[in-house]
Specification:
- The chain is an alpha+beta fold.
- The chain has six helices and 16 strands.
- The protein has one domain: Fumarylacetoacetase-like, C-terminal domain (Fumarylacetoacetate hydrolase, domain 2, Alpha-Beta Complex), CATH 3.90.850.
- Helix content is 19%, strand content 39%.
- The strands form three sheets. Strands 1, 2, 3, 6, 7, 9, 10 and 13 form an eight-stranded mixed sheet that branches. It has a five-stranded mixed sheet with strand order 4-16-15-11-12.
- The longest helix is centred in the C-terminal third of the chain and has 11 residues.
- It is globular, with a radius of gyration of 16 Å.
- This is Fumarylacetoacetate hydrolase.
- Pfam families: FAA_hydrolase.
- Belongs to the FAH family.
Length: 208
């Protein structure tokens, strides 16, 4: 794994639930690689950091460096599910001061990620339906057709501004329904890939 890029406010209803304007260009932030955590087992999170919110997302991994002349299918190695965890209290404080978000987005365990499965085609990607369950209750669900910026638009923007190479991963944004985690919560992710349902978890939240 190389760079971890994340897209903010890429689903309109999520932007609205956060009281934010819809972006006119992709909002990019990143996480350090030590933020990565598997999508099962125990997820230990820092209790002193304040309220932590879950944000389920589709994640794609680059098979090679971005080239605008090549088809997306050739450049993408795989697709997975991920959870972008956000220290919401910290983020709010940082935003009020006009400071960068990294501390609120990059703490250990804040980039939950499942295994990758092969990326078949852009058409099949857009048909994926994914969801997050907390304690057996569906709290988020979405599909790429709801994204404000398409994969092509995201790749082009990231590549031209930051670079996008082999092994980089992109968290593509979260649908509405984000909310806080409590000690002992159990998370599970599900997705419908080409007619086949994949289940990931359970992931138990433990505040330390």
């Amino acid at each position: 794994m190389r760079n971890i890029y994340c897209i903010g406010r890429n689903y309109a209803q999520h932007a609205q639930e956060m009281g934010s304007d819809l972006p006119t260009k992709p909002m990019i932030f990143s996480k350090p690689t030590h933020a990565l955590h598997p999508a099962e087992g125990d997820l230990e999170l820092p209790s002193e950091i304040g309220q932590i919110h879950y944000e389920v997302e589709l994640v794609v991994k680059m098979a090679e460096a971005y080239d605008p002349e090549k088809p997306l299918e050739q450049m993408i190695d795989g697709v997975a599910l991920g959870i972008d965890l956000t220290a919401r209290d910290v983020q709010t404080q940082l935003k009020e001061k006009g400071h960068p978000w990294l501390v609120s987005k990059g703490f250990k365990g804040s980039a939950v990620l499942t295994e990758f499965i092969p990326f078949e085609s852009l058409e099949s990607f857009e048909k994926i339906e994914f969801s997050l369950e907390k304690n057996k209750e569906v709290v988020q669900k979405g599909t790429p057709t709801q994204m404000i910026f398409s994969l092509k638009e995201l790749f082009s923007y990231i590549a031209s501004n930051l670079g996008l190479g082999k092994g980089d991963v992109v968290y593509t944004g979260t649908p509405e329904g984000v909310g806080p985690l409590q000690d002992g919560d159990v998370l599970e992710m599900k997705a419908e890939f080409s007619g086949s349902e994949k289940n990931y978890g359970p992931l138990k939240v433990i505040f330390k």
